[in-house]
Amino acid sequence: MKGLFFLLFFLSAISLKASSILIPMDAETQVNHLKAYGITYFALEQKLEVRWLLNYRGGSFLISDNEQLRRECKIRGVSFEIISDAKTGEILEEISSPSRNMETVVLEKAPKIAVYSPQGNKPWDDAVTMALTYAEIPYETIYDEAVLNDALVLYDWLHLHHEDFTGQYGKFYRAFRTTPWYIKDKEEAEALAAKLGYDKVSKEKLAVALKIKEYVVGGGFMFAMCSATDSFDIALAAEGTDIAEPMFDGDPSEPGYQSKLDYSRTFAFTDFILERSPMIYEFSSIDMTASRQINQESDYFTLMDFSAKWDIVPTMLTQNHTRLVKGFMGQTTAYNPDNIKANVLVMGENKLNGEARYIHGIKGKGFFTFYGGHDPEDYQHRVGDPKTELELHPTSPGYRLILNNVLFPAAKKKKQKT
Hints:
By secondary structure, the chain is an alpha/beta fold. The chain has helices at about 1-15, 35-45, 65-75, 85-95, 125-135, 145-150, 175, 180-195, 200-215, 225-235, 245-250, 310-315, 395-405, and strands at about 20-25, 50-55, 60-65, 80-85, 105, 115, 140, 155-160, 220-225, 300-305, 325, 345-350, 355-365, 365-370. The chain is about 30% helix and about 15% strand. Strand 2 (about 50-55) and strand 3 form a beta hairpin. Helix 2 (about 35-45) runs parallel beside helix 13 (about 395-405). The longest helix has 17 residues, at about 200-215.
């Protein structure tokens, strides 16, 4: 009986000391960075206490100890450490030191996520849906009809699939206009526009873009990649002006439409020149795909360093286990700095090419992040290419940037210091 008493006392003492679970996010310790975000989301769903330790071991997560959470970490293959109250105190004290570029951010709730994507799109058509699915973070798919019916108010975070908001069907005309999928997509887009009361797809897409803008201005979080970024801003700038040629909308574009663009309506971009030719696979001067002078082996971009204590938002969005991220291409690969508004923050850049890859800004009460390229682990994704298997890339730095944005709305709001 005495032995049993001491065993129970010993186990009780261990339980009291092991009060937190640390999910390390450094390169040396964590074996599955992407699923670690899913574990953190799971902890928020379970109403556990969650802290994001900015710049501490790659942006680690500190979560109140829970047997179910330990079990989920083991099932999902996520590295974790059980630490005592004393060790937790040491970590938080180190982070709070004015001499350390670190900060603790409390995550309050599991954000409700919407992916703007047409019905029938496969999950592997889009890097964000792949990331969410692999990390086991739940999301709902919505499209034009739901957006126009004000469904966005139900969500904390919105991702824009690789959409063309200008009504030019992705500028795929030259290469794919005779293919069955292009013809079918065009017919379906026209039918949807008519159903919703619009005589042109471009007008219907503009209405959707304006609803999304309203959502962000009201306090929403929007994340977009590839062509959804520049085509969104182009549609806003061209409100009330016909920029589409007859093969897209049945009538000629408006004479002198370039001079009629209103850049004050856009989120991120300004002073851009539209690509007039329907035979060129490009929207405007915003994208730098055609002018890139770099090969795949040396194509990397650098994440900027920010003050964790003063610039909390960009610090959250750039958390990673490396500052150097492998580049990747898309219809919109990278952004021309000359076309980025002065109040938009560049968080990742390729200095060799003089291009921005990852940018962030504030619009009204909300936030937006634009990320150039199609798939962080598929360098030059083409139509019909096989899907990326994220099981082969569980520590992908490029995909981590996407998942930083997913958790961003969960952060407890602090007063801005600047």
